[in-house]
Amino acid sequence: MKLIWKHLTSGLIYASSFKLIPMMVGTIIPFFWQLVNFYGTLPALLLIFGVFQILIVSIAAIIYPLLFLKLTFIEVYFIAVFFMVIAIVSWQIVNIFINRRASFKLIKLQLSSRTTFILLGLMLCNRLVSVPISSRTMFYDIHLKPKLAGQLKSKSKDQIITAISHDYQQLLNLTDDAVFFGCSPGSFKQLLIDAGLKESQFIIMETIIPKKHAQIFGLRRHFYFYVISTKDKDS
């Protein structure tokens, strides 16, 4: 009985649970980018819109009985939409804060989740990716800055290496317990090594995204799934 009481008092809700609001959005959005790579922008938009609709209806279904059926389901649906807007705004605020604080040269981060990390590994590479994590580990979707997408060839190799080294140091300054993942055409393995990263600090895997889909970036290369950890898996 004492244990039940603890679950209903101090264990009813933990402070970390509030992270779920922005992370809910961060769990979905990375799939949009990879669906774009797989199927194109329009199918990706329709699929992600459908996912958000399912989520909104599910939230409405939870809220509806809690209000003792005093509102119509349509009214509750709009309450759920409002909640989703708050979640999206909070996710964007977190992303803006992180990226402004870090002042990256090449990349931008988007808050995500372990669920997304695991599922993208399966979706893109048919693999469960193993990296060292703890209860505090945060997960971030990593992208090139929009102005640099497909434009890296305009920069010299030395410029790219210097920028990667700078951005990785900024990642370490930002957090000492995080996993960063993303997907892009072409392998950056040698550039990461030249920038000072050890091979035990990152994983690069070829994906099943068709090579020809990289033409949208002005390239014709295989897509690779990148995983970078602040922890050395060999340590």
TrEMBL record:
Keywords of this entry: Membrane, Transmembrane, Transmembrane helix
Transmembrane segments: 12-33, 45-69, 76-98
Classification of source organism: Bacteria, Bacillati, Bacillota, Clostridia, Eubacteriales
Descriptive protein name: Uncharacterized protein
UniProt entry tagged with the keyword Transmembrane: yes
